Amino acid sequence: MKKIAIVTGASSGIGKEFFLSLKTRESELDEIWVIARSEEKLKALQAETSLPLRVFPLDLSKTESTDELKAVFDEEKPNIRYLICASGFGRFCAVADDDPAILQNMIDLNCRSIVGVTSAALPYLSKGSAVLLIASVAAFQPIPYLATYGATKAFVLSYGRALNQELKKSCGARCLCVCPFWTKTAFFDRAAAEKTVVKKYTAMYEPSQIVTRAWKDLKKKNCDVSIFGAQARGQAWLVKTLPHKLVMSVWQKQQGL
After folding, report:
1. How many independent structural domains does the chain possess?
2. Bridge pairing between strands 53-57 and 225-226
3. What pLDDT digit, counting tens, does each position of 217-227 carry?
4. Rounded to an integer, what distance in angstroms lies between the CA atom of residue 65 and that of residue 148?
5. Which residues span the domain enclosing 213?
6. Looking at residue 199, which CATH number applies to its domain?
């Protein structure tokens, strides 16, 4: 049975950084499967690994894409050692000022595709397999002007933590929710490209820092959430402790909203 790692959103940002980090795990694998919309960018990743690379140029916000992936799983029945779900995007503006179609697309990519991909992969996980879902520190609080994005990441966090418990009992696999703070990626560039209401970033981290911490946390037996940075961990703790009305008020004052 072929041992594989799968990375969605592998063409850039945290997804690409996770792909690059698999170099240290090549001895555990027979192939790496990468998924993103750009076939050209995915093919360029072959130069970064000695393993065979299988490219899936898919838009995971579309149901037919996750259906296609499931059909491949069911036909080839691989042993999935690592499933890293890093596809997603965000928008920084009021709900009333945004395009409803784009917000729906965000929900489809950030939430529905996570369920579709993980559900398709479940029969092919085994003891020692790991699922890593990219959530966000935004998952811990309601965030005006990032309302839909924050809500999608709250979904990922809740889903992933519950899935971790199910996997431990069913097959001995793990699920780790990776919760980055502000991170220097193309994701951030896309979110801030247009007129943005978010102007103050209390800390900005590198994708490599997020990924390195995630692999370390995966070694911890009972860890299901990974957060890099004192600022990020402090905020996650505070917003779980303080009333959310106060948290939202502080956020809006910080951004001058």
Report:
1. 1
2. unpaired
3. 999 989 999 99
4. 23
5. 3-254
6. 3.40.50.720
